[in-house]
């Protein structure tokens, strides 16, 4: 009798382990695969729901090859000044596309900078249907940076990213050794595991051990170690002036994490907190404050005070 009970308990445990791992595997799949062609699993694939001319910005569409089967699409917007001061390359967040960057590009253009708005693979008009929360997107960052660098403009190149875009920028700097003249990190996250926990918490889903399993199985599905995807660590490799823009009511990342990321950057830097903002496009929260700080950074990018 006791042997039968032990066997039942053993099988119940096995079934429990299988069930919870399946939940983690499915959660990772949903998080990293967009739904398309009537597939029933995943979030809808991000699309571009507006174009620069909606804000009276003239643009050209550029498509560059990643490989034989993959490509990136970008919008190129010239500066509104007679003499272009440099180029700002803009990278969107997860679940978004380059159309979300138009409001920011409008200000960069007004300040005299040419802008390139990029669709990561899996979003907008670029190829694919997968996102890796900044891991493989870092290769997209490097590809576009090198594309602009090869144009030999001899003018500054600044990288601007939002949320996932910040992670991709920092990873590209740390591991692909790109050399921008400055970086602007808006709404950065610090660790993939913490970001997944935050997402689950907001959905009222217990974080342990689902978050750990999602990070593990996401890495298995896409061929990387999710536990090592930590922008806070990549930040130690930053050698360029940095501006961090954070929302004071952003519940996705605690302010102490942002402070730790800030401290890991040893070059001229500045952090600006929009006290009333959550995890949202900050230029739409306080346009004047956003423009003032970005303009100051672009003008004085080699003389930013290291103190906050």
Give a nutshell description of this structure:
The chain is an alpha/beta fold and 308 residues long.
Task: Describe the protein in words.
The protein has about 300 residues and is α/β, with parallel strands linked by helices. The protein contains 9 helices and 10 strands. The protein is globular. Residues about 300-308 have low confidence and may be disordered. Pfam families: Hydrolase_4. Keywords: Hydrolase, Membrane, Transmembrane, Transmembrane helix. This is Alpha/beta hydrolase.
CATH homolog superfamily of the largest domain: Alpha/Beta hydrolase fold, catalytic domain
Count helical runs: 9
Question: Which regions are unreliable across 5 or more consecutive residues at pLDDT < 50?
Answer: 302-308
**Outline, from the CA principal axes?**
globular
Overall domain count: 2
Helix/strand/pairing class, anyone?
Answer: alpha/beta
Give the beta-strand count.
10
Characterize the largest beta sheet: strand count, sense, and whether it forms a barrel. Answer: 8 strands, mixed
Helix proportion: 25-40%
CATH architect. name of the largest domain: 3-Layer(aba) Sandwich
Q: Regarding quaternary structure, how should these chains be classified? A: single chain
Provide the succession of SSEs. HEEEEEHEHEHEHHHEHEH
**Distance N terminus to C terminus?**
69 Å
State mean pLDDT (0 to 100 scale).
92
Strand content: 15-25%
CATH fold-type name of the largest domain: Rossmann fold
- Given this structure, which CATH class of the largest domain is correct? Alpha Beta
Q: What's the gyration radius in Å?
A: 21 Å
- How do the strands of the widest beta sheet line up side by side? 3-4-6-5-7-8-9-10
